[in-house]
Design goal:
This protein has 474 residues and is an alpha+beta fold. It is built from 12 helices and 23 strands. InterPro entries: AMPK1_CBM, AMPK_gamma/SDS23_families, CBS_dom, CBS_dom_sf, Ig-like_fold, Ig_E-set.
């Protein structure tokens, strides 16, 4: 048995500890009263004798069940979030307790008393074992329970702004607004019908510039000055009818949206299945007469919520420790030796911008690694980079087939805030764990990780947010 200190640092009047260890016959039924630390108005502590291994616990604070977000957490089979600790078996038992007073109420007597924060470190030492289908299924069930339990309210920020554009706004003006606001997607408001009716994305501007390049009679630069978003959406529908892309209906596709009470799992599935990057969270009145745009939910926000609950669960969910190179996710170059997964295409700096734009649209991808003649990573070109052409109306003065990717990237860096430039081209190794990749992709500024070979920087693959969620929700 190991004496272990539990701590609740957030105050209260009556604080109790309970867990999987508090009763021999019926777990979680015994409540241990925690005492307020001397000279502290908020920190409560309790000491309990635990057997080596994993234990879950929780706090009852003034009649409300709470868990400490700063300590290891796990979601149980019922969807409840509990704290978790791993108690290591002592190699020896000191015969004497030091007489020194604990420092900050935490460093107690040479390891006889162990604090939960120090116990979690043992989870990182477990060896990587063979990946089994059962591990993947268990992991997916765990996430399904978690995401089904919580709604989009969890994603709403305390404060912030959401930009929307009117349907009658000229496309050129919308292009400049999106560039100036640093947006790659924005909702469209139909004032006549008093509702949100669609989204304007970076892909729209790629299509517009491609059509201007391929068919100047369709829409000249002068017409672009007055061409409205509404007119473009109708023109886009005509392009789809004339192309090989199947059109499900002669009318524009309805806006894919979510309500504030929908589960995080439903929202994530809507984003994945509709192949979109964000989804507007809209609150509509009961009679449908008014709509309020609350937030734009994206996969990174949902992943950040997942990571907050899984951050200290590596020992409980072994799949989190597995290297991404052994998991069925991502796109890989043919030389990477992957039998499964999507094929990754790369381009070089002297490739024309038109080739990159065509590949982004036709392959329905969001980014293309840019490599040298040896296949080593130089940079990445993404869909959202198209907005950089709005800087000083560069799009009106260039030819897409005569502008190289090198020149296009120079325009991107000239138009982009330098403080975010270092996050454009984020990399990882195929030996990096799934947990580390998920943590990094939960940063809204990091939309993808390019897998490189250690030392040479030769591109081996790419892991995007969509790849991770396709794997998690499959």
């Amino acid at each position: 048995m190991v004496l272990t200190i539990f701590e609740w640092p957030y105050g209260g009047q009556h604080v109790f500890l309970t867990g999987s260890f508090t009763s021999y016959m019926i777990r979680w039924t015994e409540h241990i009263r925690m005492t307020l630390m001397e000279n502290s108005g908020t920190v409560f502590q309790a000491i309990w004798d635990l057997t080596p291994g994993y234990h879950q616990y929780k706090f009852l604070v003034d009649g409300v069940w709470r868990f400490n977000e700063q300590e290891p957490c796990v979601t149980d089979e019922y969807g409840a979030v509990n704290n978790i600790i791993f108690v290591k078996e002592l190699e020896f038992a000191p015969s004497i307790l030091h007489n020194e007073a604990p420092k900050s109420g935490m460093d107690v007597d040479n390891g006889i008393f162990q604090h939960p924060a120090s116990l979690s470190g043992g989870m990182h030492q477990e060896p990587v074992s063979q990946i089994l289908d059962g591990d993947i299924d268990a992991f997916r069930r765990h996430l399904s329970i978690l995401l089904s339990r919580y709604t989009t309210y969890e994603l709403l920020p305390m404060s912030g702004k959401v930009v929307a554009l009117d349907l009658i706004l000229p496309v050129k003006q919308a292009f400049h607004i999106m560039y100036e606001q640093g947006l790659s997607v924005v909702p469209i408001w139909d004032d006549c019908n008093r509702q949100f009716c669609g989204m304007l994305t970076a892909s729209d501007f790629i299509l517009i510039l491609t059509e201007l390049h391929n068919n100047v009679t369709m829409l000249t630069n002068e017409e672009l000055e007055m061409h409205s978003i509404s007119a473009w959406k109708e023109g886009k529908l005509q392009i789809r009818r004339a192309s090989d892309v199947p059109v499900q209906s002669p009318i524009r596709r309805p806006l894919v949206q979510a309500g504030p009470h929908e589960s995080l799992q439903d929202v994530a599935l809507k984003i994945i299945r509709n192949k979109i990057s964000v989804i507007p969270i809209i609150h509509s009145s009961q009679d449908g007469s008014s709509s309020q745009l609350l937030h734009l939910a994206c996969l990174s926000g949902i992943l950040k919520y997942i990571c907050r609950h899984l951050r200290y669960s590596r020992g409980v969910l072994p799949l989190l420790q597995k290297p991404i190179g052994r998991l069925p996710l991502g796109a890989w170059v043919s030389e990477a030796g992957r039998a499964n997964g999507c094929q990754l295409t790369t381009l070089q700096l002297d490739s024309p911008l038109s080739a990159a734009l065509n590949l982004l649209i036709e392959a329905q991808i969001s980014s293309i690694p840019v490599v040298d003649e040896k296949g080593s990573l130089i940079d990445v070109y993404t869909r959202s980079d198209i907005t950089s052409l709005a800087n000083n109306s560069v799009y009106a003065h260039i030819r897409l087939d005569q502008t190289s990717l090198r020149e296009a990237l120079e325009l991107v860096y000239k138009a982009t805030d330098a403080t975010y430039a270092h996050k454009r081209c984020q990399t990882c190794l195929r030996s990096d764990s799934l947990h580390d990749v998920m943590e990094r992709l939960s940063d809204p500024a990091v939309r993808r990780l390019i897998v490189i070979e250690a030392g040479s920087k030769r591109v081996e693959g790419i892991i995007s947010l969509r790849d991770v969620f396709n794997f998690l929700l499959n």
